[in-house]
Amino acid sequence: MKSFTKISCALSIIAVLGCSVAPAMAMQPGTTVRAGFSGLPLRFCQGMYAAELKKLPIGQQLKVLSYDVIEGWSHVEVVGTGETGYVSNQNVY
Questions:
Q1: pLDDT tens-digit map of 32-83
Q2: What is the DSSP letter of 81?
Q3: Which of 63, 61, 57, 59 is nearest to 27 (CA)?
Q4: Burial call 7-44: b when 16+ CB within 10 Å, e when fewer
Q5: How many CB atoms lie within 10 A of CB 68?
Q6: Which end of the chain has a smaller Cβ tally under 10 Å, C or N?
Q7: 49/67 Cα distance (integer angstroms)
Q8: d(Cα 5, Cα 10) in Å, to the nearest integer?
């Protein structure tokens, strides 16, 4: 029973580490992501209180220009219009 607990714990740690690495891999500069909800704010700079440049429709394609894993924001370019701004990493897929 003790070895089963150790194995279960090890597998849980591996699963958690795998989940935390996957989003960072998807947000590498040059990759394309999509707006996760209708009205996603494209902001002037990082931060929830930064000025909104526009609201993006759900599914809008965004090219990642830079990715900040610490602060949780990406500098993106709106595919099709060339507009640039910042979006929260939690709100794109």
A1: 999 999 999 999 999 999 999 999 999 999 999 999 999 999 999 999 999 9
A2: T
A3: 63
A4: eeeeeeeeeeeeeeeeeeeebeeeeebebbeeebbbbe
A5: 13
A6: N
A7: 19
A8: 9
Tell me the HSE value of 77 on the side-chain side, using a 13 A CA sphere.
12
- Picking from 60, 61, 41, the residue whose alpha carbon sits closest to that of residue 52 is 41
DSSP three-state, residue 6: helix
Q: Which two tokens stand for residue 12?
A: 């849980």
Closest to 87 measured CA to CA, from 75, 71, 77, 78: 75
- β 52-56/40-43 pair status: antiparallel
* pTM, full prediction: 0.72
If we measure between CA atoms, which residue out of 77, 47, 42 comes closest to residue 63? 77
